[in-house]
Amino acid sequence: MSRMEFYIVDVFTIGRKYTGNQLxxxxxxxxAALMQQLAKEINFSETTFVTSPQPENGxxxxxxxxxxxxxxFAGHPVLGTAFVIQQEYLKQPVDELRLNLPVGxxxxxxxxxxxxxMRQNPPSFGHLFAPSDLARIxxxxxxxxxxxxxxxxxxxxxxxxxxxxxxxxxxRRARVNLDRLRALLGAHDAIAPAIFCAETLDAENDIHVRxxxxxxxxxxxxxxxxxxGCIAGYMLEHGYFxxxxxxxxxxxxxxxGRPSLLHLEAHRADGxxxxxxxxxxxxxxxxxxxxxx
Length: 293
Known about the structure:
By secondary structure, the chain is α+β, with helices and mostly antiparallel strands. 21% of the residues lie in helices and 38% in strands.
């Protein structure tokens, strides 16, 4: 029997514990099958494993698991894992560290105000979907879809179907029909719909977001850095907000009692859209897990 250190953190909080998205971070490199079992046991939307205490090629090797499957990239696990590495391995303030993921090396910077920022890969814009198809999947009417903008598959390492809705009421009423969703996504890379609108609960915020991703064994996500990064790129690409730069606040998680705040930035440089997603991280718990060899 071996023991692994683990930490539970809340990511994209509104400045206090028990908000944002929960993450379990394990320090160790057990067999992949055990990693998946541990992710299922903790049953958060994602669980990460820092597989070596020493950096490789300037970054720390990290694996990310949802309860049912390993994934190449996810947003809040990047920030939460970077926070744990800085706190537990480095034990001193740093300006930046990097995580090695299957999608490439992701840099995370530590701002003086306590916000951690990740630079995501440039977005790729994929398949367009009919508004009526998404309305049926979300149990909404066609009039609830904001047809001024496309419904589109977008990825910065994890793909989502982005669906702009006309109002906060429509976002709140959305309920996914999983059979219809699976049928629609069967030929595509996207794992879930990310729905949003420009009406918010908090007047300081700019957009309200829900990510309905239980197709892979996780419930509705409280805060989704990967999806919000896609939304930032999408909004810049399609002119959702005026201007050639984007700097907005995104609220998420209110429908499931986990209010969250994500900071989104996007601009164009050298023919690409540069995306940064930021948020606060709070340490909730730490301990040791007795794991079979």
